[in-house]
Structure formats: structure tokens, C-alpha cells
């Protein structure tokens, strides 16, 4: 495997997703049936299910969230700051969570406080924002205490203003290679409605997969007819989120190595053949008194001239073509000096070897 690409892949998978995926089990819990047509019924079910799960041996903490990082979810709403116009709204990821969810995922609290059991329906609305939101909306200022609300099309023009009570770290939502997404967190009890499908996240002391069956049974003890799907550990989701990117990079690597090998073989064959064809010329020059050093210098100079031209054209084309794969080069400049230098050194070495050590010419055929 190409060393530069291997390091790039290792760097990609070593990226901090913004939370601790170890010992974290996730599953989506859905509500269906006419008895769950109201928000109140869904609130009671999720609250009872969460209470049963938290009582299980081996569960450290747990909570529900309306979208899960690196799972393909993308729940975005416009956010309005007090004093701004509707035209100034900027979209942000919405996480409606129960108290305890952020603690279970170990998303760091940077300023202020987290959502807690006092952030209930009827209480003054509280909201958390991530660092990207704070940097974009309140550069050089503290967002704590500022008022925001979701765009009017979520409910009505009279959506309540919510107070920013804390700032948390950024979380990678779409991919490990994409960052800087603005996001806000609000208690499920204070959101405009209760989502019919929510994802349970729970932190365990031991292997989270070993608790999956017990967690399902605890939820079904509240209502055995409710679907539970997408059961997975967070480590699995983190790895799966980059499978496609990993495959594409491996494919590019295979073609690149094949192309480099063919180029090296071709250059060696052409130059070595050219040197062999000049055997008589070299003999004549030697007979006329040319030194070994001058003959070698002539052969290398004339042989390396087209190689140098080819390298210049090839590197220029590579720099232009790198625009097409820039999206796959996570946290790496497409002007990767190490890779360009290594390829150049390899081709120059092969070319030099062809000039100095050409293969033996075949013996002349006898009539």
C-alpha cells in the first residue's frame, strides 16, 4: 500500500468525532399505532422506556436524541437571533435530546451548563449551541444569555424565544472529513412536537453489544409492539461512515500504483533500448579517444532530457487533475510535496539505471 495514502487513511480514522464512541450502544426506537397519535402519549412512552433502560445493570448513562452523528441523519432548521431579520437566518442542525444524552455521548461542555430535568414544558425555553454556531454568530463574544428561535415555518411566527444556556463542542454529523457544521440542542420536552422516532444512546461499562438484547427487552416491557431498528455500537457507525471514502481511496491507489509501475517499466525499456542501439557509436567514440566519463555524461544527458520534460508535463497534469479528487483528500493539501517528490525520485532513479545499466543486447542473428 502506498505510504502516503496509508498515513492519510490512518489520519482520517484518528479524527476526533466530537464525542467518545467507545462503550456506546445506539438503537432507533419508533412509535406506531393510533394510541401514539398525540405528543403526550409519545412523551410518556419514551420517558418510561428511558427509565427502564437506565435501571439495567451495566448501563452508565442513557438518553434519547432525534438524530445521531455519522448515521446519515440530517435534520436542519433555520435559526433567528433576536434583532436579526428572517433573511439573516442561517441553517443549523437540530438535536432534540433528553437530559443525559450529551453526558452519555461525552460531548464536551465548553461554557455554561447542559440541559437538565428542569428544562421541561412550560419552563423558560433553554438551548445549547455548538462552538461552530458560537463562532459564526457571536464572534469574539459570549453567546450565553442571548435569545434565539427557530424559523417561523417550523410552527408559527410566534415561536418562543429560547435562551442560550451553554456551548458544547462540535460533533461530526455527516462525515469525519466534514466539520464546522452549526448545531443547536434543545430538550425534547421544549420542542414544538415530540418526534415519533428517536435514537437511544447509552454508555455501558463493558461491551455495549452484549447489552443489546437486554435493552430491547427493557423497552418492550413498556410496549412490546414498538419497533426497534438500527441497533449498532457507535464504533461500528464511525467505521461504516467512511467505508465508501475508504473504498474510493483504495481504488485510486490501485490505479496510481499500476500507472506508476507501467511508467517505470516503459521509461526503462525505451531508454535502455536507446542506449543499446548506440553501442557502435559508443565504440567509435571510445576508439577516437573519448573518455569513459565523457561518454557516460553524454548518454545520461541525452537520455534524461526527454525524461525531465516528461516529468514536468506529468507533474503539471497531476496538479491540475488533483482538483477532481480534492474532496477525498481529508486534511491533506492536494499539493502533497512528499508524494510528488517520491514519484519524481523513483522515475529519475529508473531512468538513470537504464542509462548506466541497460540490459544486454541480443546477439546478432547468423544468416
SSE blueprint:
Layout: H1 3-13, E1 24-30, H2 39-54, E2 59-65, E3 76-81, E4 90-97, H3 101-105, E5 109-112, E6 126-130, H4 131-137, E7 147-150, E8 162-168, E9 183-187, E10 197-204, H5 212-220, E11 228-233, H6 234-240, H7 243-277, H8 279-287, H9 292-321, H10 337-356
Parallel strand pairs: 4-9, 6-8
Antiparallel strand pairs: 1-10, 1-11, 2-10, 3-4, 3-7, 5-8, 6-9, 7-8
What class do helices, strands and sheet pairing give? alpha+beta
Helix content: 40-55%
Q: Order the strands across the largest sheet as they lie in space.
A: 3-4-9-6-8-7
Unreliable sequence segments: 1-7
Q: How is the biggest beta sheet arranged? A: 6 strands, mixed, barrel
In total, the number of domains comes to 2
Judging from the principal axes of the Cα atoms, what is the shape?
Answer: elongated
How many DSSP H or I helices? 10
Radius of gyration: 32 Å
Share of β-strand residues = 15-25%
Number of strands: 11
List SSEs in N-to-C order.
HEHEEEHEEHEEEEHEHHHHH
Terminal Cα span: 50 Å
Oligomer: single chain
How would you describe this protein?
There is one protein chain. The chain has 367 residues and is α+β, with helices and mostly antiparallel strands. The chain folds into two domains: 16-241, no CATH class; 244-356, no CATH class. It is 41% helix and 18% strand. A six-stranded mixed beta barrel has the order 3-4-9-6-8-7. The chain has a four-stranded antiparallel beta sheet with strand order 2-10-1-11. Helix 2 crosses helix 5 (212-220), helix 7 runs parallel beside helix 10 and helix 9 (292-321) runs antiparallel to helix 10. The model is unreliable at 1-7 (pLDDT under 50).
